[in-house]
Design goal:
The complex is a heterodimer of chains A (281) and B (285). Chain A has 281 residues and is α/β, with parallel strands linked by helices. Chain A is built from ten helices and ten strands. Classes of the chains: A alpha/beta (281), B alpha/beta (285).
Chain lengths: 281, 285
């Protein structure tokens, strides 16, 4: 059994007019089956409104299925008794850091999670240091989060989830507001946690480059999973991806353009290194 | 039209013990019909810089001149400056508030004191310029997709006909198609209307693709100011300050390191493709 199992998952919500009358039913998640193994690095792609975030919110029981089921580490999210455990097992990092920071000092914010879990004080201190160092915010530990820039706040929020050392972390567009350095740092932190600690990572992103190192990619459209496979399998289908309002990594695009000009470049190029080797064998 | 920063500095919370210098001795000139990208790591002073352009923040040292007039002069009309220098903030859709898209866009020009007929005309023009679908003008702005909301919000600023349009990360959080659509729309508008665009962005690829001039901010100062090729030739320094060059720039340098004579100044896929194909077209791989 995988760490996250969604079976025939359906989620609907009512659309209402100004007076609050129901005008229709929107299906945000349309009968999805999804299985994530412990230790995998998963990416979810999809255009705005395709249902990615709604799916993510099911994985830590912020939303519960209308039909079908979601289990996290064997715990059924439909049972409210499981909610606290589920949220400890599956931590979540959101897009907007302003919505996730609560303390007035950076290190206290990071300590909030483990404190709530009843972790002994000495260990909290260690976890806070480790987490803040891994996101490059250790120097700012005594600062007020309100005085940090958006990207710095996001790194603090990520440290806060990391300090809870969950089995699985869901990143919901964690880099949407970051600069290239910050973006690379966050993605490499996610990979490091995945490789060194075996933490399952579920990454939702609009940046195709960030998906390249994943074990498996899911593409969503209108609440359904419409494509799944390895990054190479997914990104070799350029036209299909365009149909779903997505793109391919820069190097894949360049390789594709070069091929159109008649250069014998093999299909499935994802990284700069691969393209370089194709050009200078 | 010209906007001049003359040795501008800005320090937050003077005298509180938390003094932070957010801008440090910035001098620059923004002219007619420019398309400028501003890049810098988070906290480098990009947003502080653009907030000085329309007088939202007041420099603690130095002067700013718009069309030759000192905007800090006590008789200067700052309200007028803010219609001349329009600002689209990050996540502008959070500022939508009216019952319909059309009403929302009318808010700005109405506040300028224009008559109702002109207000309606401006709103219509602005929504057309951002390629907002006409059959949705009367829809609630809250029932739109992310990309459409953002267009509506940009139209709200455009309706004031600013000579300079500042956009602070206008594509943050949008899917790839949405990003291309918004930037393509801004670029088309720049070409047809001829207004000056200042684009604050974290995407080096987008900046390379669309702008003519890049200003790099670091620690509150201007580190580089030049064309994309000039600025991205400093890619090693850019990395030190938390930025990068477009990925193609790295590829071109690596090819050159291996003795392939390609153009290392290429910053877009198109330029790189051109240069690589030209070389291998002659020699074969």
């Amino acid at each position: 059994m995988g760490i996250v199992e969604a079976k025939n998952l359906l989620y609907e919500y009512f659309k209402r007019d100004d007076e609050g009358k129901v005008t229709g039913i929107e299906t945000a998640i349309d009968h999805i089956d999804l299985s994530v193994e412990q230790g995998q690095f998963i990416s979810i792609l999809g255009h705005n409104g395709s249902g990615k975030s709604t799916l993510a919110k099911h994985i830590n029981a912020l939303l519960v299925p209308a039909e079908g089921s979601v289990t996290v580490d064997g715990l059924d999210t439909s049972d409210t008794k499981n909610h606290l455990s589920v949220r400890q097992i599956a931590g979540m990092v959101f897009q907007n850091p302003d919505n996730q920071i609560i303390a007035s000092v950076v290190e206290e914010d990071v300590a909030f999670g483990p404190e709530n879990l009843g972790v002994p004080t000495e260990e909290i201190v260690e976890r806070v240091e480790r987490s803040l160092k891994s996101v490059g915010m250790w120097k700012k530990r005594t600062h007020s989060p309100g005085r940090l820039s958006g990207g710095q706040k996001q790194r603090v929020a990520i440290a806060g989830v990391m300090a809870m050392e969950p089995k699985c972390i869901i990143f919901d567009e964690p880099t949407a507001m970051l600069d290239p350095g910050g973006r690379a740092e966050v993605i490499s932190v996610a990979h490091e946690l995945n490789k060194k600690k075996g933490i399952t990572v579920i990454l939702i992103t609009h940046y195709m480059e960030e998906v390249v190192g994943s074990d498996r990619v899911f593409v969503m459209d209108h609440g359904k999973v419409v494509m799944q496979g390895t990054p190479r399998e997914i990104f070799s289908q350029v036209e299909e991806l365009k149909k779903y309002r997505l793109g391919v990594p820069q190097m894949t695009l360049l390789a594709d353009e070069l091929r159109k000009k008649g250069l014998p470049i093999p299909a499935g190029i994802l990284t700069r290194e691969e393209l370089l080797n194709a050009l200078c064998p | 039209m010209s906007l001049i920063f003359d040795h501008v500095s800005y320090t937050y919370s003077i005298g509180s013990g938390y003094e932070t210098k957010a801008l440090s001795d910035v001098s620059l000139k923004i002219g007619e019909r420019e398309f400028i990208g501003i890049i810098g790591h988070t906290g480098s002073g990009k947003s502080t810089l653009v907030q000085h352009m329309n007088g939202l923040l007041k420099a603690t040292e130095g002067k700013i001149y718009y069309n030759g007039e000192d905007i800090y002069d006590k008789d200067y009309d700052l309200k007028d400056l803010r219609t001349q220098v329009g600002m689209v903030f990050q996540y502008p859709e959070h500022q939508l508030f009216e019952t319909s898209v059309f009403e929302d866009v009318k808010f700005g020009p109405r506040n300028q004191g224009l008559d109702e007929q002109e207000v309606t005309l401006r709103a219509y023009e602005a929504l057309t310029k951002v390629k907002f679908p006409e059959d949705r003008f009367d829809q609630s702005p809250f029932d739109l997709s992310g990309g459409q909301k953002r267009r509506a919000a940009i139209a709200g600023v455009l309706a004031m006909k600013p000579a300079i349009l500042i956009l602070d990360e206008p594509t943050a959080g949008l899917d790839p198609k949405g990003r291309d659509e918004i930037l393509g729309m801004i670029s088309d508008m720049h070409n047809t209307v001829g207004n000056t665009i200042v684009l604050v962005s974290h995407s080096m690829e987008d900046v390379a693709e669309y702008v003519d001039r890049i200003i790099v901010m670091d620690e509150g100062s201007v580190l580089y100011d030049g064309t994309p090729s000039e600025v991205f030739s400093h890619y090693k320094k850019l990395e030190e300050i938390g930025l990068a060059a477009p990925e193609v720039t790295y590829l071109m340098h690596e090819l050159a390191d291996r003795g392939i004579p390609v153009d290392v100044n290429a910053t877009t896929i198109e330029e790189a493709c051109e240069s690589i194909a030209a070389y291998y077209g002659r020699t074969g791989i």
